Amino acid sequence: MLHDGRIIEKPYKGDVQVMKTERQLGRLIKAPENFLVPEDAKSPEVMRRKFLAAGVATAGLGLAGAARASSNPVSGQGDPNILNLPEHTTGLGMPVAATGYGLPSQYEKGLQRRESPGLTRVSAASVAFTPLQGTFGIITPSGLHFERHHQGWWDIDPSKHRLMINGLVRNQKVYTMDDLMRLPSVSRIHFIECGANTAMEWGNVAVPTVQYTHGMVSCSEFTGVPLSVLLEDCGYDKKNGRFVLAEGADGSSMTRTIPMSLALDDVMVAYGMNGEMLRPENGYPLRLVVPGVQGVSWVKWLRRIEVGDQKWATKDEAIHYIDLMPDGMHRQYTGMQEAKSVITTPSAGQLLLDKGFYNVSGLAWSGRGKIRRVDVSVDGGKNWRTARLESPVLTKAFTRFNIDWTWSGAPAILQSRAIDDTGYVQPTVHQLREVRGTRSIYHNNMIQSWRIADTGEVSNVQVS
Ligand code: MTE
Asked: For ligand 1, what atom is nearest to the CA of residue 150?
């Protein structure tokens, strides 16, 4: 481990389990908000008895017997869901454009971004977490993108919105939305993670599901104008202009310093998200996109960019968004989001109904570039296997990983460990605490552990 808490990869020689071709498929109760067959929604104790009974009944029968204990209703009278023709097969369906803006199925309405009860005193200065356990691939649906506001959100009239660029520039300018949307645009997929993601877990296990441990991160395709284009347009001072200040139009006086090197690199003044205009909660009509850097710098409802020759040390840089170190000192301007990963399924709050095959799936991301590798352990970090990275693997974006796992029914501890293309390895909780202590709020990227009990219950635990 390096002095600054970063860990460099050592080649790993772990055991590699060979995937069996014949599998009993395990079934899983998703997090509580997902749809359930009523029978499956029983308490873990009932499920456990059912599970044990099935194990006894199928002992010695091999896979064919085990399959009968699974959810496939292949025996007896046949499945009424197949045999009885439903109305949707015999009747006329809904007309086109019944909903001018499409919505998810009524059966998916439990999947919501949610506030963590008691986290803040008022909901206007709070967080709604993305339900990572229920999303697929790498794009977060816009309606499930996490929200973090310091002073509530607004639906601002774009015809009245302005972006001013001032400070160390030859020509101070004010742009309308129309001006901005005529300029050359770029579209890129990036994650945004609040620096406070996983903040509640610094000292001990605190929250029950991946939605609350890790849901202050989302990943979208953003469209907008590179900030470099606007800075050039205004003739920024190339000698003395070393920083820019971004300012939001809401009442929180959100102002953040961005080094000029980043501003000229991949920072974007964005109006688009996932193929449409930004959602109001995410900064409509204009926000800053600062790839790799903590969410607070992604100023929403962006109204002003000032070019300056030194950092501003604003309230959100001097008293908030600083890291309390074990010696009592604070670290300032630590915006980079280091490599991190989490298994999203199976994850805490879910319930494994059968032993057998499971697709273990999760997300990995790094503020410094691409994910090179993700290792997965099912025994609390003793042995690791390398997961499959699904394409695309993009820089400063979510990478989806998957790995096969056959659950024997014995207790297990699932972990994932991300390695990015700088060689940085996601630290264990113990390694992170050694450097950072336990009293921080921001930048907790420890390896997450999910314990699977023999009942199939999955819970949040911390192991070193
Ligand atoms: N910008 C303004 N103007 N006001 C805010 O309250 N919150 C910041 C940042 N930009 C904020 C803001 C914080 S702390 C985060 S983590 C991200 O926006 C959250 O972006 P999101 O709500 O689109 O997920």
From this structure: 6
Element (H, E) at 153: none
- Give the pLDDT of the chain (464 residues) as one tens digit per residue: 333 333 333 332 332 232 333 457 777 766 544 555 556 556 555 555 555 555 433 333 333 333 334 445 455 689 999 999 999 999 999 999 999 999 999 888 889 999 988 888 899 999 999 999 999 999 999 999 999 999 999 999 999 999 999 999 999 999 999 999 999 999 999 999 999 999 999 999 999 999 999 999 999 999 999 999 999 999 999 999 999 999 999 999 999 999 999 999 999 999 999 999 999 999 999 999 999 999 999 999 999 999 999 999 999 999 899 999 999 999 999 999 999 999 999 999 999 988 999 999 999 999 999 999 999 999 999 999 999 999 999 999 999 999 999 999 999 999 999 999 999 999 999 999 999 999 999 999 999 999 999 999 999 999 96
Which stretches does DSSP call E strand in 212-301? 217-226, 243-248, 255-259, 268-273, 276-277, 287-289
* 424 secondary structure, DSSP code: B
Q: Is the CB of 298 under 6 A from ligand 1?
A: yes
Whether ligand 1 lies within 6 angstroms of the CB of 321 is answered as: no
Cis previous bond, 346, omega within 30 = yes
Specify the residue with its C-alpha closest to ligand 1, atom 22: 147
304 lines ligand 1 (CB under 6 A): no
State whether the beta carbon of 147 lies less than 6 angstroms from ligand 1: yes
- Report d(CA 446, CA 430) in Å as an integer: 8
Whole-prediction pTM? 0.88
Does residue 135 contact residue 143 with C-beta atoms inside 8 Å? Answer: no
Atom of ligand 1 nearest to the CA of 194: 16
Is the Cβ atom of 282 under 6 angstroms away from ligand 1? yes
